[in-house]
Amino acid sequence: MVAVEPTDVPPSTGHPQLDEALAGLDLSRPVTEHPEQYAKLLDALQRALNESRS
């Protein structure tokens, strides 16, 4: 079994908006800010999925 070490760099999705949203996710910030960060990430994901259907 190969051990995988965590990195500070999120994986690349190949979609600039998603990559930017993932890079902006900072769970070290206060817990009260997490929902706002998740909402931004979810919005970017929904936009990317909608674009792929066009």
Q: Count of DSSP E strands?
A: 0
Which structural class should the secondary elements be placed in?
mainly alpha
Using the CA coordinates, give the radius of gyration: 13 Å
Work out the strand percent.
under 5%
Task: Tell me about the largest β-sheet.
Answer: none
Sequence stretches where pLDDT stays below 50 over 5 or more residues:
none
Oligomer: single chain
Tell me, what's the shape?
flat
H/I helix tally = 2
SSE order in H/E notation?
A: HH
Average predicted confidence as pLDDT: 83
Topology:
Blueprint: H1 16-23, H2 34-53
Helix pairs in contact: 1-2
Q: Mind explaining what this structure looks like?
A:
This protein is an all-alpha fold and 54 residues long. Helices cover 52% and strands 0% of the residues. Helix 1 packs antiparallel against helix 2. The longest helix is centred in the last third of the chain and has 20 residues. It is flat, with a radius of gyration of 13 Å. The protein starts with 15 loop residues before the first helix and ends with a helix. The relative contact order is 0.16. The mean pLDDT is 83.
